[in-house]
Amino acid sequence: MGLFKKKPKDFKATIANTGETFDVTGGINLLQAALNAGIKWPHDCRVGSCGTCRCLLKEGKVKPLNDFSYVLDKEMLDNGMILACQARLQSDITVEVDFEQGALR
Ligand code: FES
Q: What pLDDT score was predicted for residue 26?
């Protein structure tokens, strides 16, 4: 019991530009957790190919489920941009969400 099925940790995500916080439990991705919490997080494909769900990671650590560089250019990556639908939390995080698509670079 336990050895091979480690329970994913629960983390908290904060959206700096709205002040909203929500829990990310059970190892689900950041976008799914936000949607579960009723947040109108911009999204489209949910599989890491459109870039709509992008956000800036201000604090904390995430693990990419899919390489972010398929849709984010170098400048975006250098700025700390991540794809919420392809991000699994590794700590509590603070992000800025691009609610007005294109407002963040
Ligand atoms: S929703 Fe399309 S990349 Fe995340």
A: 93
Give the domains, in start order, of the chain with CATH numbers: 11-97 (3.10.20.30)
Considering the entire predicted model, what is its pTM?
0.90
Q: How far apart are CA 70 and CA 48, in angstroms?
A: 8
Determine the average pLDDT of the residues in 12-36. Answer: 97
pLDDT value of residue 8: 82
Is ligand 1 within 6 A of the CB of residue 97? no
54 CA: nearest ligand 1 atom: 4
Q: Which of 29, 52, 62 to mutate to test the pocket of ligand 1 (most atoms within 8 A of CB)?
A: 52
Q: Are 23 and 11 in contact (CB under 8 A)?
A: yes
Mean of the per-residue pLDDT values of the chain:
92
β-strand partners of 64: 87
Report the Cα–Cα distance between both ends of the chain, in Å, rounded.
46
